[in-house]
Amino acid sequence: MMSSWNAVCGVSIHAELIGRALLSLGHELRVFAPIQYEDDDTHRYFKVDEPYVIRNYSFLRYGDRCRDEYLLGSLFLDPKPLIEDDFDLLIVEKPSSMPLKRLLEILPRFEGRTLAVIHECRRPENPYFYKVRWDAVTVFDDRYLRLFSGIFPEDRLHIVPFPCHPIERRDRAVERERLNIPGDAEVVFSFGLLQQPEAVIKALKPLWRENPSLRYLCLVGDIDLYRRLKRLQSEHPFLDLRFDRPSIEALYGYLSAVDILLIHKVEGGEGIKLSSTAHLCLGSLTPIVCSDVSYFYTFQDEVLKYRSLEEMRSLLRGLLEGEYEGLRERASRFVEERSAERIAKRLLEIGLGEAG
Predict the structure, then answer these.
(1) Are the CB atoms for 260 and 187 separated by under 8 Å?
(2) Does the N terminus or the C terminus of the chain have fewer Cβ atoms within 10 A?
């Protein structure tokens, strides 16, 4: 697998879910991951790489928006680990972010098959994207299929949904004690690259006045954002701000300890949107409250969607008061249908040319 790995981005989340599912199914795995992320937004988790990870190239997160052939051709790639490995299938996640010019030079030397997983939310400007002849290509839903039909041969293009983390519930009391979360607190949780956090915090203040046990736990891994939000704590004592970029394993400790996951997203910009965070976290069965925007196109009643901050507050209040029965059951069905193991098996069938 050639992909971002152990990093705070949707490509990495997809790869980690699929890669670890392949291992659990008994397959051998080698991950070729970036030495460096050539942008200012991608951060690695606070985690040491697994033994099967080799870092041997530069990853241009927004390579789909780049048409500068000199820049694209200058991205670093050490081809030796790729050439020396003996494999049946090479899965390349978000190919436009890879050093494609250099990859094109060595692909003819591969004996295995190749599968591209398309994360690109628009038709890339990257000219090398259109020069690779993959054995198979997958997209996440009908929106991507419409966008990339005509670019790839129809018989090689398949829809394979974004996977979900397996259902995992840990002992709430144990996790709260370990994470220093008061046992009697009602905790709303957000993490990562937060959008409009000041507005969200302000919107939660009336809810805290109604319920003084309310806590808003925010994990941020960007130092500038941390400093911004730190200034708000004196006026918003319910804000529990922590600097952390947890691995998926560590994240599930937090998800087991909290009451609600809040994912606030703003519509805007071009291209298809998809929330890798929601797919990743749904397996905790912690209720998800999220914006009613295209990031959550995939979801119906497995999550609770709002169109305003007032509606957000109302949904949170209802959840804390025990409303919305059946939400966890619906989430559980969604996770089972799109389990990482099920999706990994499907990708193998397609990639190895065994799909019906």
Answers:
(1) yes
(2) C
pLDDT in tens, 236-283: 999 999 999 999 999 999 999 999 999 999 997 788 999 999 999 999
| Contact assessment for residue 187 and residue 175, using Cβ atoms and an 8 Å cutoff | no
Task: Read off the pLDDT of residues 155-193 as tens digits, 9 standing for 90 and up.
Answer: 999 999 999 999 999 999 999 999 999 999 999 999 998
Residue 280, SS3 per DSSP: helix
- Other Cβ atoms within 10 Å of 250 Cβ, number: 15
What gap in Å lies between CA 241 and CA 264, rounded to an integer? 17
Angle (nearest 5°) at CA 157 between 295 and 34: 65
Strand partners, 190: 218
Task: For residue 74, give every residue at least 6 positions away whose Cβ sits within 8 Å of its Cβ, in sequence order, or none.
Answer: none
pLDDT, tens only, 17-71: 999 999 999 999 999 999 988 876 678 888 899 999 999 999 998 899 999 999 9
301 neighbors 275 (Cβ within 8 angstroms): no
* Domains, the chain, with CATH or none: 10-162+340-351 (3.40.50.2000), 172-336 (3.40.50.2000)
